[in-house]
Design a protein that fits this description.
two-stranded antiparallel sheet, 2 strands, alpha+beta
Length: about 120
């Protein structure tokens, strides 16, 4: 079945399903289907198709996509020296398994033996 044929049949079944759903009180779905010459198997097959189609349309408009829920990502470059001079002390040292970040105090320190 091509897409156009499926869409036409889906629209027709949507109308039939609405009519069945608004049947008179006290009348069962089976009674309504029998009175209108509609097969129960066909009705429930198309009911699943209609519900699936309605769900897809609703979820596309009501449920935001995963990408829409993620915050925007931005990066800032932090200029840094590759190696600290030996006469500077670090005010902060952050170590991980793969890297080390040292933030110097910008004060020179005297090591033993220097004057």
């Amino acid at each position: 079945m091509d897409k156009t044929t499926h869409e036409v049949r889906l629209a027709n079944w949507k109308a039939l399903i609405e009519r069945c759903q608004t049947r008179p009180k006290g009348q069962t779905a089976k009674q309504w289907l029998d009175a209108n010459g509609i097969s129960s198997k066909q009705y429930y097959y198309w009911l699943r198709k209609v519900r699936s189609d309605v769900y897809k349309q609703a979820s596309a408009t009501l449920i935001p996509s995963e990408e829409a829920m993620l915050p925007a990502v931005s990066f800032a470059e932090i200029p840094a020296k590759d190696v600290l001079p030996t006469n500077e002390a670090s005010a902060v040292v952050i170590k991980t398994k793969k890297s080390t970040i040292e933030i110097p105090t910008n004060k020179t320190i005297k090591t033993e033996g220097e004057v």
